[in-house]
Design goal:
This protein is an alpha/beta fold. It has 4 domains: 182 residues, P-loop containing nucleotide triphosphate hydrolases (Rossmann fold, 3-Layer(aba) Sandwich), CATH 3.40.50.300; 73 residues, Arc Repressor Mutant, subunit A (Orthogonal Bundle), CATH 1.10.10; 173 residues, Rossmann fold, CATH 3.40.50; 161 residues, PCRA, domain 4, CATH 1.10.486.10. It is 45% helix and 14% strand. The protein contains 29 helices and 22 strands.
């Protein structure tokens, strides 16, 4: 049989995986090593060489896009449709099973699937029925608890009673929520997997049927499986049979949503006789990039182990840029992108990757100023994010009471018992009187047109806006923004969510405070149209936010610079990559540094970022950064220090920052244009680092900076003079 069309363009390790004897097989596929090719060729091998029926093959992946790509590749190879072959996501296949066996699964035939918004609305109804305050029991937080229970195969009755009132209340909510779902024939996403698992577990005849049918099970991205997905595969296969899994323990970055890297590690124990094949030849990146990635991830313990390599050349060194601050970091990155385009590169080939969504704001503004279109991959532009629009709506009401869209947006955000019926009364009164919603609310309160509870809630909202205006009047703009975010309840609402989205939204709100400060620092009063003697910075900033939200984002298909979080970048590749914000506390994130497991996941995330780069890689960090509403002087990320110095090049000629702090260099003369009154050998005091001695001074104006040795604060540091607040002693 001629199988050259399956094997000819594969390397030795890929061929070994595709042609492996039937039985459990674990393929450790490094970044850029051709795992999708191996999966699709394995399916073709099963169909043509092993004479497997399409009906006997089940291929599972994590996204509909990946499933569609897999199916398309197989059909193109075979030059025929493969209708009997099941290829889909875990949730998609579980849904298919439940539709076919709805009676055995104890579901109505026309059961409906709840999305996350529907789930939240249903939970709100359950909470109201229990007379529970949504502020103390935020529906997204409760939904997270229920979803985690289902991921761990736990029904309400399976939850241990630890005697704690909070745990008992959660169990009661979960119980009532599940009863509501049963009553309405509703199934949430977690329920799809749990109900399908129970279908096989509780019906031995169905379990036997599907074990006999799906004799060949293939699972992609196995490192991203959670508890129920792993047990789902074990139950279907019976811990034996032809189970072909592909994954990379070095790219498990979704632990926060339940993924368990140990599933990939324990496969060999749970599937006796399982073989392991490593795909280590990389077809994406240069040798220098791969050596950096290998050195970085080697600091993680308990790895299954791979060493990426390429047949291509070394390529350029990894460029490291030590920025003055976040604005300088953005200017540097955008300037390098502009140079790339001028030299014939495409904008879409450049990717700016960051740990937190909030970091996109400075890059967006800098790209807009440079007239470079950009796209936020898998997310919204900064000023279009819901939490930012909420805060801006409050600020607009503080500035203009008759702003109806802003009134409607936040009148019940956070929830304050102002329901849609009350808002409808306000709308009707505004239409009949020809005024704004604010005026209508005042009129209804004065005339007694609102009931007691509604009247109290509306009056409380109006009083809040008045108090925000009165108490923040005359304060600097960043303090006004901070007050609105805090006193409106937006910050507390998202802090109480206690999930990744809630934390991300708090970070975005704090970045809005930074944005208002940057706006005042860098805005030209003439350009933004404020009176220099009595500047109305609030209205000017609101206009700026509106304009920023309406431009810059490229249209679909347009050649645009790519901005995204590192989590969103997984699976993608770009010729030119910038990893920005590589500082302790930001990346790795401050919440991850105290716990080894979380720190290792942060390092895997850095590894993912490094291996996105094909030709050029820049690592950027800042000496000073406004973060969490404060001015910080962070240390460079340990991930930068873990890359061997011989693979890197400092864009700015400075002593190496990796390893121990170097001894202070001998003092040199001040550069031309150095700030008046600041010279080498002078003693100075810094508000955070204490007393020190000036070693060097360079630059002028905004870019002037000084190298100061602080004996009690870690040695020599470069500081931006404009921000350092140095006092000459």
């Amino acid at each position: 049989m001629d199988v050259s069309w399956i094997l000819d363009d594969l390397n030795a390790a890929q061929r070994a995986a595709v042609t492996a004897p039937l039985g459990p097989l674990r393929v450790l596929a490094g970044a850029g090593s051709g795992k999708t090719r191996v999966l699709t060729r394995r399916i073709a091998w099963l169909l043509t060489v092993e004479n497997a029926s399409p009906w006997s093959i089940l291929a599972v992946t994590f996204t509909n896009k990946a499933a569609a790509e897999m199916r398309g590749r197989v059909e193109k190879m075979l030059d025929q449709p493969i209708g009997g072959l099941w290829i889909g996501t875990f949730h998609g296949i579980a849904h298919r099973l439940l539709r076919q066996h709805w009676q055995e699964a104890r579901l109505p035939r026309a059961f409906q699937i709840l999305d996350s918004d529907d789930q939240t609305r249903l939970l709100k109804r359950v909470l109201r029925g229990l007379n529970l305050d949504e502020k103390k029991w935020p529906p997204p937080q409760v939904a997270g608890f229920i979803n985690r229970c289902k991921d761990e195969i736990q029904r309400p009755a399976d939850l241990a009673d630890d005697g704690k009132p909070v745990q008992r209340q959660y169990r009661q909510i979960y119980t009532l929520y599940q009863q509501e779902c049963e009553r309405g024939g509703l199934v949430d996403f977690g329920e799809l997997l749990l109900r399908a698992y129970e279908l096989w577990r509780d019906h031995p005849d169905l379990q036997a049927h599907y074990r006999e049918r799906f004799q060949h099970v293939l699972v992609d991205e196995f490192q991203d499986t959670n508890t129920i997905q792993y047990q789902w595969v074990r139950l279907l296969s019976g811990g034996r049979g032809d189970v072909f899994i592909v994954g990379d323990d070095d790219q498990c970055v979704y632990g926060w949503r339940g993924s368990k890297v140990e599933n990939l590690q324990r496969f060999a124990d749970d599937f006796p006789g399982a073989q392991t094949i490593r795909l280590e030849q990389n077809y994406r990146s240069t040798h220098n990039i791969l050596k950096a990635a290998n050195a970085l991830i080697a600091h993680n313990a308990g790895r299954l182990g791979k060493n990426l390599w390429t047949a291509d050349g070394d390529g350029e060194p990894i460029q490291i840029y030590d920025a003055f601050n976040e604005v300088d970091e953005a200017r540097f990155v955008v300037e390098r992108v502009r140079q790339w385009v001028e030299q014939g590169g495409q904008r879409r080939d450049a990717a700016i990757l960051y740990r937190s969504n909030a970091q996109s704001r400075v890059f967006e503004e800098t790209l807009i100023a440079a007239a470079l279109p950009y796209r936020i991959y898998g997310g919204l532009r900064f000023f279009e994010r819901a939490e930012i629009k909420d805060a801006l709506a409050y600020l607009r009401l503080v500035a203009h009471r008759d702003d109806d869209p802003s009134f409607e947006r936040v009148v019940n955000t956070p929830p304050r018992a102002i329901g849609e019926r009350t808002v409808d009364l306000l709308r009707e009164a505004a239409r009949s009187r020809g005024g704004s919603l604010w005026q209508a609310a005042l009129g209804l309160l004065a005339s007694g047109g609102l009931s007691g509870r509604a009247a109290n809630a509306v009056r409380g909202f109006l009083n809040l806006i008045e108090a925000l205006d009165r108490d923040s009047h005359g304060q600097p703009l960043p303090e006004r923004v901070e007050q609105v975010i805090t006193r409106s309840g937006l910050r507390a609402m998202y802090e109480q969510a206690r999930d990744d989205k809630g934390e991300m939204r708090v970070e975005n709100l704090e970045e809005l405070v930074n944005a208002s400060g940057d706006f005042i620092t860098h805005a030209d009063p003439v350009v933004v149209g404020v009176d220099p003697d009595e500047p109305d910075w609030l209205n000017a900033f609101l206009a700026h936010a509106a304009l920023e939200s309406g431009q810059g984002q490229g249209a679909a298909g347009e050649d645009s610079v790519q901005l995204m979080t590192l989590h969103m970048a997984k699976g993608l590749e770009f010729p030119l990559v910038f990893l920005v914000g590589l500082e302790e506390g930001l990346f790795p994130h401050s919440r991850s540094t105290a716990e080894a497991r979380q720190l290792e996941e942060e390092r895997r995330l850095a590894y993912v970022g490094v291996t996105r780069a094909q030709r050029q890689l820049y690592l950027c960090h800042a000496e000073r950064r406004n973060w969490y509403g404060r001015e910080n002087y962070p240390s460079p990320s340990r991930f930068v220090r873990e890359i061997p110095a011989e693979l890197t090049h400092d864009v700015r000629a400075q002593p190496k920052r990796r390893g121990k702090t170097p001894l202070p260099a001998p003092p040199v003369a001040a550069a031309p244009g150095a700030p008046v009154g600041l010279q080498p050998r002078q003693r100075v005091r810094h508000p955070q680092f204490g007393e020190g001695v000036v070693l060097e001074v360079e630059g002028a104006g905004y870019h002037a900076r000084a190298k100061v040795n602080f004996p009690t604060a870690g040695g020599a540091k470069w500081l931006v003079v404009a921000y350092a607040k140095l006092e000459v002693l």
